Amino acid sequence: MNKDTLVQLDGVFREMQSAEDWKNALDIMFTSMRGLFVFDNVAIYTLDDRAKGLDVVYARALGRGKTAEADASWGEGIASDVIQNEHMIIRGPLQDASPNNRLSQIHMLGIPLYVASKLHGALLFVRFGGPEYLDLHIHVASLQAVWASSLLERKQLQEARAELDSVQRQMRLQDDFVSTISHELRTPLGFIKGYSTSLLRQDTIWDEATQREFLTIIDEEADRLAKLIEDMLESARLQSKTIQFKFSPVRLDALVRDVVARTKTHHHTLDIELNMDVLPPVLADGVRFSQVLENLIGNAIKYAPESRIVIQGAYIDNKVLISVNDEGEGIPAEYIPFLFERFYRVPGERTVTGTGLGLYICKQIVMAHHGNIWVESVLDRGTTFFIELPANPTL
Ligand code: ATP
Ligand code: MG
């Protein structure tokens, strides 16, 4: 091997190392080593343990006779032979291939790929119309196979790490949840117990106004407990997918108005603006969908107290779009990706109670409606939640 080749390889490997994505790294390797080894198409097949078949995880058409990149069926037969025999295979054109049709003169080279010393798949090259693979080409291809294997290993490790991160985050959330839930259960219970014990005291006589005040607190705290338990059951049912949705044609403009009217009976001073286009019906479970709106409005009331709330409804591109906007403190961007996870609450000083179930419940319900829910938030400006549902004007 001469010095120039070594210098070139050094450059290629460095560039691959700094590529962010394993597919980019492979692109760099195959294109920059074409001076040493020319081919038309390349593909990587990996064993799919579950389906007992082969997956095409990478395919590129670089040379003459380009075929669609995704269409890598040309190599499937030889890939399974390579994998079955755990051996490199070189295959020339079939006997009956027409000498005038270059595309029928198929020269294939297949090399097994190993990840963590286990057979993982095959790397396939094809040349249309030759020339045959020479010793040097085979060595370059083998080197590329070794490098491709290590990139596949890197990909597996990255995926495993992402999964581990997500499991760890879920475990942390569960831990936080246990402490949140015990606090959330204890607080209303404490009030109920304290005020009822006071009312029952033999040595004190409470005037009627005070009795009423204590009973009102007991009543409200009992409601809070009931809601908490209902949310926990609801989220467990949604997670295990045991909820039966009752879908029927629903006019969301009317539904939103009802929810707002009901909310106002509990929050007399609430400044809430409705901005509703006439909306076509959607197929929805009215009761569950009201829950979504109640949760979003409830959050706006809790996290953006005193703010005006604007609810808009529009019909765009065959979809109904509902948004709930507040002018509160907003949510820092780094927390946004986790908001819809079960038990997730934005960390920080807490004066507002909650369990982190509301938005999880919203998302599950919206997804059961084949819709989307997302949030946009600007610090110190406010937060807007959006819900999009497929509309059906023929309902
Ligand atoms: P729960 O709804 O179960 O009583 P929660 O309100 O804490 O509890 P979610 O409704 O899931 O839970 O909301 C998750 C988190 O998102 C909240 O803890 C809050 O930090 C943040 N959040 C939600 N809505 C808003 C909003 N409109 N403005 C600012 N922060 C919000
Ligand atoms: Mg909430």
Catalogue the unreliable spans. Answer: none
The general outline is elongated
**H/E element sequence:** HHEEHEEEHHEHEEHEEHEE
Name of the CATH first level of the largest domain:
Alpha Beta
Q: How are the strands of the biggest sheet laid out side by side?
A: 2-1-5-4-3
Rg, Cα atoms, Å: 32 Å
Which CATH-level-2 architecture of the largest domain?
2-Layer Sandwich
Alpha carbon gap, first and last residue: 73 Å
Compute the average pLDDT.
Answer: 89
Helicity level: 40-55%
CATH superfamily of the largest domain, please?
Answer: GAF domain
Chemical compounds bound to the protein: adenosine-5'-triphosphate, magnesium ion
Descriptive overview:
With 395 residues, the chain is of the alpha+beta class. It has three domains: 3-155, GAF domain (Beta-Lactamase), CATH 3.30.450.40; 164-240, Helix Hairpins (Orthogonal Bundle); 248-390, Histidine kinase-like ATPase, C-terminal domain (Heat Shock Protein 90, 2-Layer Sandwich), CATH 3.30.565. It is built from eight helices and twelve strands. The protein has helices spanning 3-18, 22-32, 76-85, 135-200, 208-239, 252-266, 286-303, 358-368; strands at residues 41-48, 53-61, 89-91, 106-115, 118-128, 248-250, 272-276, 282-284, 309-316, 319-326, 372-378, 382-390. The strands form three sheets. The protein has a five-stranded antiparallel sheet with strand order 2-1-5-4-3, with helices on both faces. The protein has a five-stranded mixed sheet with strand order 7-9-10-12-11. A hairpin with a 2-residue loop joins strand 9 (309-316) and strand 10. Helix 6 (252-266) packs across helix 7 (286-303) and helix 7 packs antiparallel against helix 8. Bound molecules: adenosine-5'-triphosphate and magnesium ion. Magnesium ion binds at residues 295, 298-299, 354, 358.
